[in-house]
């Protein structure tokens, strides 16, 4: 996917996110984020975009010193997020994708951030859909790209070892990966290979299972189910 594709999805998923939040109402609980209300979800997305906006616009090399405005009343949260999104998305389009920036993943570029923003809002849009009781899938190509990003930047053995290899296979769009433990990290190859466990399904279903938004039972697990379950549980998602 290109940075332009990611920014298109960033805008599109933002609109869908806001619409789902409005349908659910700010007081509704978010079943995929225990303890959170829709208002909390809205403010979280504002925090994410506000923080990255400051980092990129001011060419910061740390999130330290970024002071969020006080959280407004819940009824003002949608307008707050929409205003932030307009300015932030415009700024992401104002610079070449290869423009270097600081990130928690080390030195990256605006292209990396466009991808991160598209994936962040897509998963949280599903959270909002679940709060509204109307879940809909993530675009297959975007979800496959999200699996690739997840495997590169979010998996580790922080919560325990897995004890085997895992093969992931998207059944609706291109996307196959084999993951093997390598100390406290994983070695990921983009290949078809036999693993001790295989996780197969539509890209959206696989991505949401990896992010623990839906149970592993929503996808096909072949082979050692305990290895697959430990793999999904191992990654630290905070």
Structure at a glance:
By secondary structure, the protein is α+β, with helices and mostly antiparallel strands. The chain has helices at 3-24, 38-57, 77-93, 110-132, 140-153, 203-210, 225-234; strands at 100-101, 108-109, 166-170, 176-182, 185-189, 197-201, 220-223.
Would you give an account of this structure?
- The chain has 238 residues and is of the alpha+beta class.
- It has two domains: 3-132, dinb family like domain (Four Helix Bundle (Hemerythrin (Met), subunit A), Up-down Bundle); 140-234, Nonspecific Lipid-transfer Protein, Chain A (2-Layer Sandwich).
- Helix content is 48%, strand content 13%.
- It contains seven helices and seven strands; from the N terminus they run αααββααββββαβα.
- Helix 1 packs antiparallel against helix 3 and helix 2 (38-57) runs parallel beside helix 3.
- The longest helix has 23 residues, at 110-132.
- It is globular, with a radius of gyration of 18 Å.
- The model has no long low-confidence stretch (mean pLDDT 94).
Task: Label this structure with key terms.
single chain; 238 residues; alpha+beta; Nonspecific Lipid-transfer Protein, Chain A; 5-stranded mixed beta sheet; two-stranded antiparallel ribbon; 13% strand
């Amino acid at each position: 996917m290109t940075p332009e594709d990611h920014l298109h999805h960033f805008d599109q998923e933002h609109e869908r996110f806001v619409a789902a939040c409005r349908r659910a109402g700010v007081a509704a609980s978010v079943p995929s984020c225990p303890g959170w209300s829709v208002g909390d979800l809205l403010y979280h997305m504002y925090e994410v975009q506000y923080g990255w906006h400051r980092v990129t616009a001011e060419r910061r090399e740390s999130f330290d010193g970024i002071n969020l405005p006080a959280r407004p009343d819940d009824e003002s949260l949608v307008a707050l997020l929409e205003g932030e999104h307009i300015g932030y998305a415009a700024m992401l389009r104002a610079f070449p994708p290869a423009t270097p920036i600081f990130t928690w993943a080390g030195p990256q570029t605006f292209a990396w951030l466009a991808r991160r923003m598209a994936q962040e809002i897509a998963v949280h849009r599903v959270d909002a859909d679940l709060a509204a009781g109307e879940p809909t899938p993530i675009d297959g190509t975007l979800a496959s790209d999200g699996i690739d990003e997840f495997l590169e930047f979010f998996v580790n053995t922080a919560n325990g070892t897995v004890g085997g290899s895992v093969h992931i296979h998207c059944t609706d769009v291109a996307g196959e990966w084999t993951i093997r433990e390598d100390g406290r990290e994983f070695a990921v190859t983009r290949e078809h290979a036999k693993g001790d466990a295989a996780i197969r399904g539509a890209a959206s279903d696989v991505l949401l299972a990896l992010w623990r938004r839906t149970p592993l039972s929503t996808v096909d697990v072949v082979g050692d189910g305990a290895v697959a379950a430990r793999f999904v549980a191992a990654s630290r998602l905070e």
